[in-house]
Design a protein that fits this description.
The complex is a heterodimer of chains A (about 260) and B (about 110). Chain A has one domain (about 25-255): Four Helix Bundle (Hemerythrin (Met), subunit A) (Up-down Bundle), CATH 1.20.120. Helix content of chain A is about 60%, strand content about 5%. Chain A contains seven helices and two strands; from the N terminus they run H-H-H-H-E-E-H-H-H. Chain B folds into two domains: about 1-70; about 75-115. Chain B has helices at about 15-40, 45-65, 75-85, 90-110. Chain B is built from four helices and no strands. The chains are: A mainly alpha (about 260), B mainly alpha (about 110). Chains A and B meet through helix 1, helix 3 and helix 7 of A and helix 1, helix 2, helix 3 and helix 4 of B.
Chain lengths: ~260, ~110
């Protein structure tokens, strides 16, 4: 959290040129610029979602009469309405709400770890890092369940009509993959897999980094080094992952 | 806004800072809860989308400003991150208009029937 990282003797940690640009250490500044470039990547994904969504017809009828069809873009709350252990119960957006809460909470425990690091309170850093790791793993497990459900589909499936060898045929499809989608246009499923998948990949990398930093805290590396800046840098990455989820949640699930 | 969390002179052992962290958490939680409330009580439309986008931007402000501490970094660092990000708005508007134009074209050529 400190804008200046100091060594044990209180001197600012200068770059090799003898100054400290933007009052941030080299590693921290590079983390910020990496996250900026990652913002563009996720921005491109979400903007692609917007473009493709706006090029499809929206569902025009009453929300209560909504049925899945590949002729219009689905209403997200109708697609994401399942919760583990409550099979067949219609609970729109409840599970994704729980996932959002878990990720926001893990962001809080992360910032508490960073704060403890500034006080060089090793035990507190370890405690909050463990909570953050737990939050990250829980989120990933939730996402695994969400994907499984999305791929397997509903009990009834959706009947689609398609032109095969110049003949209209009807068949029932269940769930979604990259070439077939019971919930709506194929592009909807593709974007779901790409966007939440790319975010989930970031969370996985984050958990791996958190475990590494926890290990190095526990073995006293940062204590010997005299500062806990590594906790802060991984913290920046972790908050960014939470930030991306806030946007994914709004544009994929709410709008 | 200009209050700084200088961690080298923490007289209270960081208690004030922890208070800010928990306050931010409650703001984020309440905003998310409100988003749910709106999702189930309000008719779908441009107004609803606008409210969601604004609430998301407020949440982003708190996450980046407080959790990522950007609000309390030097001005040059803050702006070098913020200005390129703001340019994304242009990108969003341009491509959404493009999507709407594609929809118009496909409608004219009766692609949906």
């Amino acid at each position: 959290m400190a804008s200046t990282i100091t060594t044990t003797n209180g001197e600012p940690k200068l770059w090799l040129g003898g100054i400290e640009p933007m009052k941030a250490s080299y590693g921290k500044l590079m983390m910020w610029f990496f996250l900026l470039s990652d913002t563009f990547t996720f921005g491109a994904f979400l903007v692609s979602y917007g473009l493709i969504r706006f090029s499809y017809p929206a569902y025009a009828g009453d929300v209560a009469d909504f049925t899945f069809s590949n002729l219009y873009w689905p209403i997200p709350e109708k697609v994401f309405a399942a919760v583990p252990f409550l099979h067949g119960v219609y609970l729109p957006l409840v599970f994704v709400g729980i996932m959002t809460f878990i990720l926001i909470f893990s962001s809080v425990t992360m910032v508490l770890a960073v704060e403890a690091g500034n006080r060089r309170d090793k035990a507190a850093v370890q405690k909050w890092m463990l909570w953050t790791i737990l939050g990250g793993l829980t989120f990933l497990s939730c996402q695994a369940w969400e994907w499984t459900h999305f791929i397997h589909g509903t009990d009834e499936g959706t009947v689609i009509r398609e032109l095969v060898n110049n003949q209209w045929i009807e068949r029932t499809i269940y769930g979604a993959n990259l070439i077939e989608n019971q919930y709506g246009p194929v592009a909807f499923a593709d974007l779901f897999f790409f966007i939440t998948g790319f975010h989930g990949f970031h969370v996985s990398i984050g958990v791996a980094l958190l475990i590494l930093v926890f290990y190095r805290t526990a073995t006293g590396l940062y204590e010997r080094r005299g500062h806990y800046e590594m906790v802060e840098k991984v913290g920046l990455y972790w908050h960014f992952v939470d930030l991306v989820w806030v946007f994914v949640f709004t544009f994929f699930y709410l709008v | 806004m200009a209050h700084s969390h200088d961690q080298h002179v923490v007289s209270d052992g960081g208690a004030a800072h922890r208070k800010v962290i928990w306050k931010t958490f409650w703001i984020l939680l309440i905003l998310t809860a409100l988003e749910f409330l709106i999702a189930f009580t309000m008719q779908h439309g441009t107004l609803r989308i606008t409210i969601f986008v604004l609430m998301t931007l407020v949440k982003a402000f708190y996450i980046v400003g407080e959790f990522m501490h950007l609000k309390h970094e030097t001005k040059s660092l803050m702006w070098s991150i913020t200005i390129p990000t703001v340019l994304l708005i242009w990108f969003v508007v341009a491509l959404i208009m493009e999507g709407a134009a594609i929809f118009q074209e496909l409608t004219i050529f009766k692609f949906w029937n």
